[in-house]
Amino acid sequence: MDEFALIRKHFKTLTPASSDVTLGIGDDCAVMAPPPGEELAVTTDTLVAGRHFDPAAKAEDIGWKSLAVSLSDLAAMGARPRWFVLALTLPQAGEAWLERFAQGLKAAADKHGIVLVGGDTTSGPLSVTITAMGTVAAGKAIRRSGAKPGDLVCVTGTLGDAALALQLGLATQCARFDPDREFLKARLNRPVPRLDAGCKLRSLAHAAIDLSDGLAGDLQHVLGASWVGAEIYTEKLPMSQAFQRLSPPASRLSLQAAGGDDYELCLCLPPEALAEARRKLELPLTEIGRITREPGLRWLDAGGGLLDGASLRAYNHFPDPEPARA
Amino acid sequence: MDEFALIRKHFKTLTPASSDVTLGIGDDCAVMAPPPGEELAVTTDTLVAGRHFDPAAKAEDIGWKSLAVSLSDLAAMGARPRWFVLALTLPQAGEAWLERFAQGLKAAADKHGIVLVGGDTTSGPLSVTITAMGTVAAGKAIRRSGAKPGDLVCVTGTLGDAALALQLGLATQCARFDPDREFLKARLNRPVPRLDAGCKLRSLAHAAIDLSDGLAGDLQHVLGASWVGAEIYTEKLPMSQAFQRLSPPASRLSLQAAGGDDYELCLCLPPEALAEARRKLELPLTEIGRITREPGLRWLDAGGGLLDGASLRAYNHFPDPEPARA
Fold it and tell me: Which of these, B210, B176, B205, B177, lies nearest to B192 by C-alpha position?
């Protein structure tokens, strides 16, 4: 089967008729009509086998997660998902794998109201690049650069679940009949982008970022873009019950602060907006710290003592001094 | 140097201030303002090392071509290039390579008025995925599906140069002081997307496609989408002087019809529009055939005799019966 037939067969069901799609898969470009008065928010992410996912993971999960990580970026802007394009590189055209990959992708797309409009399939080492497009009222996207001294640093959901799942080797394990392990595994393999939270808090938050590389690294981006600092009350970092039960106490902080792959949102809010923000959301919103005029990111223990933050480092694809990890 | 520093250092110069870019590189998403009354045209393409380009090729050329192939898709719609995002997977963060890659990318971007607005850098086997966005007046994009019986099949420029360059092993060769080889090598490594032709012929053409996989395969897509057939007068396929001088006569037809990588446009025009179309363009527009009611693609020799078209096959990433070529 040639690549065009493959695409037609497995991805056509991902392109339901949508009033804003003038021309979907099957031409040189897709053509869409952005809603008047809205701006376009665009993000692109690559997931490489063996680095961002275990090649032995279920193809459905790889499909789901590939889209979810891009949707999480749209969530951080407060944008509404609209369209995406898929660039898929495969070592071979394994039909069963493709079918399941497309199923997982479709499940994530349907759940979040985004439509596949185009793609490219090439043969090579397995990797998935998705470019997702959303729209947001002009001038209303939440940026990283708007945090102000005195703002509360808040996070949605819980932190550290995905990193713990990875540490416990749950990515490809059958964990049936153990609800805690099943929960953690789902947090790693089937992250749920916080699109609803991003949209609802758009008018309240001064700044936002999604937590893909870990709180330590991602929050640094907000601080750098906003020219501020922050102090984080480590005892307030929200834990799931499964995380509480299964994480070794000694590694909790590093899992929560530097683990990554959580796809929760970190938002900076003026203190007076917190109650309203919580009313608007269905998922927990936890105050974990405060933006300061003084630059730098400080981690505080329950007694207010300063912790060593050097061990809490963000995931870096090209760490010094050894550049290659591939 | 971490990946954020790499991106800042090498790609920031690719993002000049642009009135329609609300927020460029450095946030969860880029945010752009599509012009009122225009639709968005989007295309994504992956170039994999060892498949779409020689890993030993000059990094500048890889950068240029990565963008040019996507711009060629915008050209085929008659769209104006606006913004692109870059997903770059690299085995290691070789700074010298990155700098030259960015130079080539910037040269193509500046020449064609498109702005880098975001990206993702990961480590893994070398590949480049670019998603390019353009805009086009609502309802005016040229589609593959509009060809009508009686239309002339026309192509811009010349065909077969890139395939000949590949056959002669010119991709990575130093060909200085031989203008023919230098010309062919540039056609392979530095294709020039026909954006001007796409825009200018938008109101005249019934259908268009860009020639990336070769005339035989690409024209089939137009015929399939338009529910028509075509006859091609093989002696009319336009040849460059370098191609005439250096191609073995026996392989000319297959190089021109199935070679691919030309990035010329193939357009279907009503006969009465040809003169006006030629007046509008600065590059040659050659009539090479005619759209027929009878389905199928027929290759005719100078005497009108039917040639065997089976040997003229499009490039296929997943050929039967052996699925893997990686």
Answer: B210
Give SS3 for A157.
Answer: coil
Q: How many CB atoms lie within 10 A of CB B310?
A: 6
Beta carbons of A29 and B41 less than 8 Å apart: yes
Strand B80-90, strand B115-123: pairing: parallel
Q: What is the mean pLDDT of residues B165-183?
A: 86
Residue A30, H or E segment: strand A30-32
CA distances (Å), B294 to each of A175, B32, B116, B219, B259, in order? 59, 45, 45, 15, 26
pLDDT band at B313 (very low <50, low <70, confident <90, very high): low
Nearest to B79 among A29, A51, A131 (CB): A29
Helix segments in B129-232, DSSP class H:
161-167, 179-189, 195-200, 215-226
Taking CA atoms, A49 is separated from A96, A244, A314, B189, in Å, by: 18, 30, 20, 29
* Cα–Cα distance for residue pair A68/A119, rounded to 1 Å: 17
Would the CB atoms of B89 and A139 count as touching at under 8 Å? no
Q: Which two tokens stand for residue A96?
A: 């069963």
pLDDT at B129 > cutoff 80: yes
Q: Taking 90 as the threshold, does the pLDDT of residue A17 lie above it?
A: no
Query: Quick check: A259 and A247 in contact, CB under 8 A?
Result: no
**d(C-alpha B150, C-alpha B8), whole Å:** 53
Amino acid A101: pLDDT: 93
Burial level of A131, CB count in 10 A (0-12/13-18/19+)?
A: buried
Virtual CA dihedral for B274, B275, B280, B283, nearest 10 degrees? Answer: 70
Cα(B179)–Cα(A43) distance, integer angstroms? 42
Neighbouring-strand partners of residue B119:
B86
Q: What is the pLDDT of residue A54?
A: 85
Contacts of A92 in chain B (CB under 8 A): 318, 323-324, 326
pLDDT beyond 60 at A321 = no
Contact between A125 and B125 using a beta-carbon 8 Å cutoff: yes
| Cβ-contact B287, B267 below 8 angstroms | no
Q: Radius of gyration over alpha carbons of chain A, in Å?
A: 20
Nearest to B73 among A28, A83, A326 (CB): A28
For tokens 């992250």, the residue is A191
Question: What distance in Å separates the CA atoms of residue A48 and residue B83, rounded to the nearest whole number?
Answer: 25
